């Protein structure tokens, strides 16, 4: 992942869920002063280390004969001259001072306490406070960002009325994030409500972050095998696949919260292990071995039947599974050499679901007719990597793929019709999500330019006329 830059997944947070003023993790003022001022003992230790280093260099230096200086000697002379210059500079800086050198640069944790700063710009501070507040008509959008070996969750504020779209805060991750799932159930709060985010990572863990806490350095919870606290593994390490693990044994590729049973969260990994987590107990309630189907790349709970989970796998299988009995109620196969990328239920027609795959096709299935697809069509060259459905406009669906295009569709049980297609200059489209509050707003994530972009579908005449 050292040279990879992309948004691997992104999600909307519904309006009204986030705290209007998020909590902040702040360093104590005394601790901050210590960090800024340093300590005299540390300074003296550093000076001793410099002296020791100079002595070692002097011992290694040997005179060259014939009065001709070698390249090494010339470099030594330059180093000595630089050291003398730095000594003079330090002497001038520390003359008359008894405290550590850092104190002369940043003595005060709060700039308003510094007597040398007299012109405080209150307008900037007011603007920052204004941007920090989450308003009732704001959505949060969280993007899983991979940036050349640096991994993070980027939390943005989007306001449709003002067209605001900016980074509010972020969280640094130790492993690449692969999937995101927001859930609004917090068993630790008095009213059981929260603003939490599950993050599946390449390390095989399922981390839970509280989006209402800014500057967090650790997740509030890590879901893992019961009775085990995972030790840090070597890069690329995996758990043994001996059938004894009560949790994930490979990278977590998909996760979904069950809104009908809010204490249940499902997740699937690259080995084909499906775990149903009990959020109340923070442990696995059920572990299902689906390794025969391959890695579980996508899943979705049925919008009406709370125990039915639809999964799509690397092995080309789509399973409708009744989690009460661990039985597959219906199964479809898109082909042994085809990977299922995404599965979503049609919430306007709950018997039906959409399947997107890496052969570039979209397929529409009926849960009552196992094994056969209602209809299918080509969507993207190079594979369909993202798919979403409007929250309120019936039949409006969007897809994105490796070809870099955003395609908009009219979907029904009888047809799949392309309405509009556009290249939005984000490279390959790896993720997209419809707003849960606005039927024509889509956020898209790619691997080029600004990586994340809001697209207002109401600006496309073809879309407006198709769904008028």
Task: Walk me through the structure.
- There is one protein chain.
- 15% of the residues lie in helices and 39% in strands.
- Among the domains are: 1-22 and 134-223, Beta Barrel (Lipocalin); 33-59 and 74-116, no CATH class.
- It starts with a strand and ends with a helix.
- The chain is of the alpha+beta class.
- Residues 32-79 are annotated as: Disordered.
- WD repeats lie at residues 245-287, 377-419.
CATH topology of the domain at 1-22 and 134-223: Lipocalin
Q: Mean pLDDT, nearest integer?
A: 85
Backbone CA Rg: 28 Å
Principal-axis shape: globular
Structural class: alpha+beta
Helix content: 10-25%
Number of strands: 29
CATH architecture of the domain at 1-22 and 134-223: Beta Barrel
Lateral arrangement of strands in the main beta sheet: 1-3-4-5
Distance between the first and last residues' Cα: 44 Å
Largest sheet: 4 strands, antiparallel
Strand fraction equals: 35-45%
Low-pLDDT sequence parts: 60-65, 96-107, 227-244
Helix run count: 5
Q: What's a concise summary of this model?
A:
By secondary structure, this protein is of the alpha+beta class. 15% of the residues lie in helices and 39% in strands.
List keywords for this structure.
single chain; 468 residues; alpha+beta; Lipocalin; four-stranded antiparallel β-sheet; 29 strands; 15% helix; PWP1
């Amino acid at each position: 992942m050292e040279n990879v830059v992309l948004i691997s997944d992104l999600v909307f947070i519904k309006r009204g869920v986030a705290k209007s003023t998020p909590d902040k993790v702040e360093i104590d003022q005394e601790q901050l002063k210590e960090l800024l001022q340093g300590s005299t003992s540390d300074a003296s230790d550093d000076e001793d280390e410099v002296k020791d280093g100079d002595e070692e260099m002097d011992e290694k230096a040997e005179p060259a004969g014939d009065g001709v200086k070698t390249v090494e000697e010339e470099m030594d002379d330059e180093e000595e001259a630089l050291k003398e210059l730095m000594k003079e500079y330090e002497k001038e800086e520390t003359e008359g001072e008894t405290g550590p050198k850092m104190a002369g640069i940043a003595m005060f944790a709060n700039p308003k306490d510094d007597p040398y700063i007299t012109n405080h710009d209150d307008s900037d501070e007011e603007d920052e406070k204004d941007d920090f507040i989450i308003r009732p008509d704001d959505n949060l959008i969280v993007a899983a960002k991979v940036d050349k070996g640096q991994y993070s969750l980027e939390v943005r504020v989007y306001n449709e009325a003002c067209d605001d779209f900016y980074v509010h805060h972020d969280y640094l991750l130790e492993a690449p994030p692969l999937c995101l799932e927001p859930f609004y159930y917090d068993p630790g709060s008095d009213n059981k409500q929260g603003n939490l985010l599950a993050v599946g990572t390449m390390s095989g863990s399922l981390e839970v972050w509280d989006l209402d806490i800014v500057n967090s350095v650790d997740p509030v919870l890590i879901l893992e095998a019961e009775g085990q606290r995972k030790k840090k593994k070597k890069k690329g390490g995996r758990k043994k696949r001996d059938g004894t693990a009560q949790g994930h044994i490979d990278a977590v590729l998909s996760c979904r919260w069950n809104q009908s049973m809010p204490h249940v969260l499902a997740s699937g990994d690259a080995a084909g292990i499906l775990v149903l987590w009990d959020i109340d107990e923070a442990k696995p309630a059920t572990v299902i071995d689906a390794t025969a189907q391959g890695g579980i790349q996508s899943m979705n709970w049925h919008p009406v039947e709370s125990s039915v989970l639809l999964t799509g796998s690397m092995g080309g299988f789509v399973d409708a599974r009744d989690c009460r009995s661990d039985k597959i109620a219906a199964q479809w196969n898109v082909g042994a050499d085809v990977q299922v990328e995404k599965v979503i239920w049609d919430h306007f027609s709950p018997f039906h679901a959409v399947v997107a795959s890496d052969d570039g096709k979209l397929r529409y299935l009926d849960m009552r007719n196992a094994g056969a697809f209602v209809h299918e069509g080509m969507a993207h060259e190079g594979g369909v990597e993202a798919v979403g459905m409007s929250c309120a406009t019936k039949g409006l669906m969007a897809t994105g793929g490796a070809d870099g295009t955003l395609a908009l569709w009219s979907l029904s049980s009888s047809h799949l019709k392309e309405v509009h297609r556009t290249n939005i200059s984000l490279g390959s489209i790896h993720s997209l999500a419809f707003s849960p509050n606005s039927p024509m707003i889509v956020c898209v994530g790619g691997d080029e330019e600004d990586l994340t972009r809001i697209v207002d579908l109401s600006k496309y005449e073809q879309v407006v006329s198709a769904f008028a």
